[in-house]
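Practice set, problem 2.
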Amino acid sequence: MKAVKILDCFNGKRDLSLIDLVKLSGLPKTTVFRLVSSLEEAGLLVKIKRSGHDVKYRMGLKLLELGNNVSEQLEYKKIALPYMRKINKQLNELVYLSVIEGNEAVYIEQINSTKPVRLVIKVGRRSPLYAGSAPKLLLAYMDWDYIENYLEDLEMEKFTNNTIDDKHKLKEEIRTIRKRGYSISKSERFEETMGFSYPVRDFSGKVISSLGVTIPAADYSKDWEIVILENIREAAEQISKELGYVKHVHS
């Protein structure tokens, strides 16, 4: 929080000296010196040295890079929303968008169903990557080095009887998801629910998000599954297309 306080001092200001930062932050001089050194090392602040006595700091390009990542996230959220609304209108089921952050899936957008019995997922909710259709899909499209590192330290908790709690089975599931191009969950994270997810890709082909639908297990039928998957696939492909992804068809 103290480091954030230092960065907040730059709101509306281009260059600040250490003395300026001490005054604006209200933090002790030694604390400011220590934090500024750490922020400089991380690339979040840059030292501008005009002379031995005239040393100032400004925000580093690393912050621009981080800001761009957030902007991109907001951009595809904005692009995805009309398609999510269309799926929700056609199916009247919970529709959501999720991304990887750290070693978890985070739900960044959702539209609820109006059914009396339904699952509600709050925006900002986190989930482990081995349980549920969206988390599993996001994990499946990471590179194998990431997956191996993730599995190495993973302690798998059993949320329901259907939660995958064996690393070899999880690897098999990852291969299955990659092969068929989508993910299904049958009451793995929450009892009596079923989830279906497709990947959303950016211009480079990288999977940046998962578009998913969850239904009450009691409403499931094979015919309904086909309709749901077709709706998600079509929307995920359109969102990816708007993000600049061009699907290459091999002859």
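Problem 2, part (b): a different protein.
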Amino acid sequence: MNPGAWRLTRPLFCTIACTMNALSLAAQDDATLKFVDEYRKAYAEGRDLIPAPQRTLDLSSIAERLDLRTVTPEGALSGSAFLASDGTIVKLAGTQGCLSTEGVEVAGLQTTCAMASLAGLTATLSEAGAAAGNAFPCHFLGQNAGTPTVRFAECFFVKDGEAQSLSEMLIARGLAFAARNRAGRAVFPEYAEAEESAQRARAGIWANAHFTHPFGERRYRGNRSTN
């Protein structure tokens, strides 16, 4: 692993280990912890409890009428969704975490593909929160009916004077993938470019020779000679 990749993935050592340990803890006295624990355990087992959008998301609104609202995350629920302090679930519309339970190596640590994505969002939320005072703005694209409330959004934070997309950072680090529509096209084309760059750099999950890509159930096959 090159030094740049090491600096990006080093925080995952503790995060993956801590996340895995947290999955075994009973949260008997805290409803929020129980809720988070339930979703995390399911995701670690390859089950995503967060439903898809019930209606077509208004993707054009990001460019045409950006409306940012401050969100404070409580904890990652999957590789691409988190619980907000108001009790709603925020699902990042532009990215999709890995849901496979097959083994992979990330930052020198043996884990599963799903756990790598879950830990990746946990670490990135912490990093984004630290840069934004534990809260950052999100633009909401749609919402599902029912309980718990699931809102679909793209979230941003400012680091080193530049606005950064939470989704794009996850994808660029090889910890999640560009979300795609039913036709197989990336919801946001620039995120597909970030995924291709991560693949070329063999960042995060892409460092593994084989794993199941979340779209099309196709197997990614890397260059064994460079492993």
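Answer key, part (b): The two ends are 9 Å apart (CA to CA). Confidence is low (pLDDT under 50) at residues 1-10, 19-29, 223-227.
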